[in-house]
Structures are given as structure tokens and as C-alpha cells.
Amino acid sequence: MTVTDFSAASGAPLPRRIAVLSFHTSPLAQPGTGDAGGLNVYVLQTARRLAMRGVEVEIFTRATHSTQPPIEEAGDGVLVRNIVAGPFEGLRKEDLPTQLCPFVAGVMRAEAGQAPGHYDLIHSHYWLSGQAGLVAAEHWGVPLVHTAHTLAEVKNAVLTAGDTPEPESRRIGEQQIVDAAHRLVVNTTGERDELVGYYDADPADIDIVPPGADLEQYTPGTQRGTEKARRALGLAQKTEVIAFVGRIQPLKAPDVVVRALAEIVRAEPHRDVRLIVVGGPSGSGLERPRSLMELADELGVADRVNFLAPRPPSELVDVYRAADIVAVPSYSESFGLVALEAQACGTPVVAAAVGGLPTAVADGRTGITVDGHDPREWARTLVSLLDDDDQRLAMSRRAPDHAAGFSWDATADGLLASYAGTMAAYRARRAEATAS
Fold first, then answer.
1. Are 42 and 59 in contact (CB under 8 A)?
2. Angstrom distance (rounded) from CA 241 to CA 391
3. C-alpha dihedral, 417 to 418 to 422 to 423, nearest 10°
């Protein structure tokens, strides 16, 4: 893929300290629960690696428990500030915009207690944080860098049955951010094109910085390690294992894999194949938290599906290693960190050909991308890979090398270059305005 050339930013001063806004979900939350997912991983991993490069990072998020301290350490040089904004629990994501004002007030109070110029730059994540970032950037006199992660126009364009359309208020809010932010950071050229096509963004204001995987945590296992992982998950060594890792909501399409499993079993009832689902209900999936279990039961494959709670990377790595294939059937995916993590563990991926997944998965080399979400087509693709040991093992060998091209260290370097260029351009514009 083509990545933005940051060479023009070389020599520009780097930020000493940045404010990262993650209003709707904490980077310390367990991915796969509630609204926690790839965004959380992105914020935490990039913050830690930016800190390793000498940049102090303070992450502002909304407190969700009364027991949370106002400030938590998330690594050397990384602080998480839990801002009280609305009730701690029971607030739906759709109601979060009503708490933007108290959140912004909390962010402003935190900055007011510091010496002038405490932050050099703001990086906001998701549109709600972007709205808060617009206010803070204006008051602090610093540039705003924004990463959308998902976009209302894109999600509504691929809306699936049972999902809820994103409201017009979100689209308007996203447009305001695109128009006012000093820099937009995206994962792929596809995301850049969506911002340009749907929101009339200026391509010159967009930097492409691919996300990564924790290549120290996610590594291929030995044969003995894989056998141990399967035993720990209660899986027989000869069982064919497909895994789905992610939030249980229509957008992530776990039902497509369950239906594909049913197609496989219907055609070959004696085939020893199982599906592992790791994740919790999220978004519109909260309305029917047991809907996927009910679907498996209705299709007669409940005894072939293991539902597991979300787990930390130290345990998730065993799920990836135990699986023959990891399925990522999302209707929309800005990148697909699960696909990268699985490949880093040496597991081939079958993914929907949407969003950043064709970038995350090398089609035909480390996995297969599927056009559409027809369960029959997914069943054929999964079976073809399960039946072809030579192809699957070749993909397994190549997968870690492909994943190695996407590290969080590289992401941090890309962000630093983007920050430096943004700060230099911002200061130049301010100097020009003052001179005139």
C-alpha cells in the first residue's frame, strides 16, 4: 500500500506532551466488552510507544466506575485521566453526546491547573472526542489531530439487518471535525478516500498511518504450545477449529460465521469442526445479548460453538494459536487488528473484503478475502482452506512475516512525523496571521 511520505516533516520539533481524547471508551477497558475494541488497543499501544520516544501522553476518558481514581498510570510517561461526566454506569452510547459538556469542562479544568502551554497537541479518537477536541484546541491554542476510526456515512452505507442507522447528528458532528481539525490520520488509503468522498476532506490534510500488532505478545507457537492451548480450551487435537474474536454486534457479523458453520455441518454432519467465539455483546447487540447463542441453537450447531468471555492478550494468544482459521466477517472495518494479531500468531485469516481488511490480509498468501457475506460462500471458503493442508500451512508460515510489516513502533513513528508536520504548519499559520 502507499503510505504518506513524512520526509517533509523531518527536522520539525516534536511534541513534548500531548493530550489524547478517548471520551466514549477507556484504553484500560478490556477489548471485546461493551464498546471496547480496536480503538482501545490503538490508543493504549500508541501512547506507550510515543512515551518510549520521549513524548508524555495524557489520555482523557470518561469515568465509568465510582472506584476509578482521577488519574491512573498506564505505563512510564502515560497517564489516564478519568473525567466524571454523567452517571458511571447505565449510560447508552447513544446518550453519550449529552455528557460532552461536562467532559469538556473536566478536560479544561485539568489543563487550567497546569502552566501555560502544558500540551503541544491534541489527538482525538472517534467523533465524540473530536467534538471535545475542537473546543480544547481553540482554547489552548494548539493543533488538533483527529482519527475517526469509523464513520457514520460508511456504516450506514453497509447497514445490516438488525442494526441501527447512525443518527444525522453524528454525521454533522463528523463533518464539523473534518472541516476544522488541523490534521486527519487514517489507517489506509481506503479510509482516506472515504473521507474525501463522503465528507469532502482535502487529501492534503490527511496522513496515512497504518496501525500495528503487538509483535512481542503475538507470536507463532510451537507444536507443543499449540497442543497445550487446545487442551486448555477443551479442544481435541484433530478437531478443525475456526475462531471469531470481537464484539458481538451486527456490524461485526459473527452470525455469518455461525451460519457458515451450520452450512458445513449440514453438508458433512460427521465432520469434526468447531467454532470458538471470543467476545461480549456490544452496540445494538446489547438489545439481545444472547442472540448469537440462540441462533446457534436454532441452526442446530450449539454443541459445536464455544462461547468465551473477552480475555487479555496473554490469554487471547492461545486462542489464535489453537485455531486453524480466524474469521473476520465484518460489514465494515477500518483496519482489522484481530486479523493482524492472528497472522502474527501464524494463523491464516478468512476476512470480508471490506475497509482495511484487504490491506491487513494478503489475499492468497496469508489468508483469503471474501466478497460479500453469503454464509454459503463463507462455508465454501472455510472448507476449501481446511481441506487444503498444504495451502493452509504455507499461509501459516507466511502470515507472521506479513504481520511484521505492521508494528506499533512503526505506527508511533508515523504519528510522530504527522504531529511534527502538523505543529510546524500550525505555527507557521499563526505567525502569518499575527504578521498580517
1. no
2. 16
3. -40
Residue 271 — left, alpha, or beta (φ > 0 → left; ψ -120 to 50 → alpha)?
beta
Do 56 and 16 touch, CB atoms closer than 8 A? yes
Find where cell 507463532 sits: 220
Q: What grid cell was written down for 107? A: 478536560
* CA pair distance 365, 358, nearest whole angstrom: 12
Q: How far apart are CA 218 and CA 316, in angstroms?
A: 9
Query: Among the residues of 206-290, which ranges form H helices?
Result: 223-232, 254-267
Using DSSP's 3-state secondary structure scheme, residue 60 falls into: strand
- Beta partners for residue 306, in sequence order: 276
Q: What DSSP character marks residue 147?
A: E
Residue 69: how many other CB atoms lie within 10 Å = 10
Note the residue count of the chain.
Answer: 436
**Cα–Cα–Cα angle for 367, 369, 374, nearest 5°?**
130
Yes or no: say if 411 and 211 are a contact pair by the CB < 8 Å rule: yes
Backbone angles phi, psi at 78, to 5 degrees: -125, 120
Contacts of residue 226, Cβ cutoff 8 Å, sequence gap at least 6: 321, 322
**How far apart are the C-alpha atoms of 53 and 58, rounded to whole Å?**
15
Distances (CA, A) of 343 to 29, 238, 273, 321, 385: 24, 21, 21, 10, 15
CB-based contact 341:360 (threshold 8 Å): no
CA dist 331 and 329 (Å) reads 7
Q: What pLDDT, in 10s, does the model give residues 138-185?
A: 999 999 999 999 999 999 998 877 678 999 999 999 999 999 999 999
Q: Which set of grid coordinates corresponds to residue 28? A: 484500560
pTM for this predicted structure:
0.89
pLDDT digits (tens, 9 = 90+) for 82-114: 999 988 877 777 889 999 999 999 999 999 999
